[in-house]
Design brief:
It is a single chain. It is built from 3 helices and no strands. It folds into 2 domains: 29 residues; 42 residues, no CATH class. It starts with a helix and ends with a helix. It is 76% helix and 0% strand. The protein is rod-shaped and about 80 Å long. By secondary structure, the chain is an all-alpha fold. α2 packs across α3.
């Protein structure tokens, strides 16, 4: 195969790869999203759960603590 045919073939393959990448990105629907900053609720819940975990140590139960945190948030929100 001549050098010019190889160069043409290489260019053709590069174009095919570009097209496939474009199609793949369109299909996956993944677009770069900017992450929103945490809300007041997220900050409250994170702090509450972290504090409870430190306080209770091995006795910490996420489900129970999360329920308590939700109740505390509701009380705080009512004020």
């Amino acid at each position: 195969m001549s050098e010019s045919k190889l160069i043409d073939r290489l260019a053709s393959l590069e174009n095919e790869v570009k097209e496939l990448k474009k199609i793949n990105s369109d299909i996956s629907g993944k677009k770069s999203k900017t992450k929103r900053p945490p809300s007041e609720y997220n900050k409250f819940m994170s702090k509450y759960l972290t504090d409870k975990k430190k306080e209770l140590g091995d006795l910490f139960d996420h489900r129970t603590a999360f329920g308590e945190a939700a109740k505390e948030w509701s009380k705080k929100k009512e004020k």
